[in-house]
């Protein structure tokens, strides 16, 4: 996506696409004129689900409000502070060492709060498969530094939820503007109206909209 925000990422990410991808593409091409053009145009590509939950969310915090390159440098230094990226290992780190890796004081607080939520069991990670999107989002946004946007990206790119519509993402709104409204500004209401034809595969349609704006897969 062409945006100052970044989707959660992890170097150990699986390259496996969601099992529903082909079914979703067939539905979207049948129901939506733009998807009927975009999906074949963009070729045989799909999103890939990304690595463990804690690492994915920690990286999203590190990447907030900085460039991709800066976030990568900080993440690499931070990752060297422990043998394995786990909540319990992060909680053993000294604040000064975390700051020395390039993290701001605020981001240190956010990552510690994230680790505490995982380590204490306040997040029902093992139950997420059976929980609704909104129930998971409610758990995630209770963590300092995790916004609704981050939670939506996590559901889409980590959990592979099929019907996520991230209306807080400005790039998605820009893509909808370009593809459906000839570049005219669109509201969240406009986007919801467009997405009615995408259901129950809003995640897949959103991904193709992002792809339409970016030369590489989101």
**In what range is the share of β-strand residues?**
under 5%
Number of domains in the coordinates? 2
Number of strands: 0
Q: C-alpha Rg, in Å?
A: 18 Å
**Low-pLDDT sequence parts:** 1-14
What is the residue-averaged pLDDT?
Answer: 89
The arrangement of helices and strands along the chain is HHHHHHHHHHHH
Helix count, DSSP H or I runs of 4 or more residues: 12
CATH class of the largest domain: Mainly Alpha
Class by helix and strand content? Answer: mainly alpha
**Major beta sheet summary:** none
Question: Can you tell me the overall shape?
Answer: elongated
Spatial gap, N to C terminus: 6 Å
The CATH superfamily of the largest domain is identified as Hypothetical protein, domain 2
Q: Please, could you describe this protein's structure?
A:
Keywords: DNA damage, DNA repair. It holds the Pfam family HhH-GPD. The protein has 218 residues and is an all-alpha fold. The chain contains 12 helices and no strands. The chain has 2 domains: 79 residues, Endonuclease Iii, domain 2 (Orthogonal Bundle), CATH 1.10.1670; 105 residues, Endonuclease III, domain 1, CATH 1.10.340. Helix content is 55%, strand content 0%. The N and C termini lie close together (6 Å).
Task: Briefly say what this structure is.
This protein has 218 residues and is mainly α. It has twelve helices and no strands.
Q: Which labels suit this protein?
A:
218 residues, mainly alpha, Endonuclease Iii, domain 2, Endonuclease III, domain 1, 2 domains, disordered N terminus
